[in-house]
Amino acid sequence: MNREPPKAFNEPDSKATAMAETSYEASATGSPCIRARGVGKTYSSRSSEVEALTDVDLTVYDQEFFCLLGPSGCGKSTFLRILSGLVSEYSGEIEISSARADGGSVTNMVFQEYGIFPWKTVLNNVAFGLKMDGVRKQRRHERARSYLEKVGLAEFADAYPHQLSGGMKQRVAIARAFTNDPEVLLMDEPFGVLDAQTKRNLQTELLSLWSETKKTVVYVTHDIEEAITLGDRLAVMTARPGGVKEVLDVDLPRPRTRGSIPTDEFTTLRERVWELLSDEVQQSVTR
Ligand code: ADP
Question: What total number of domains does the chain contain?
Answer without folding.
Answer: 2
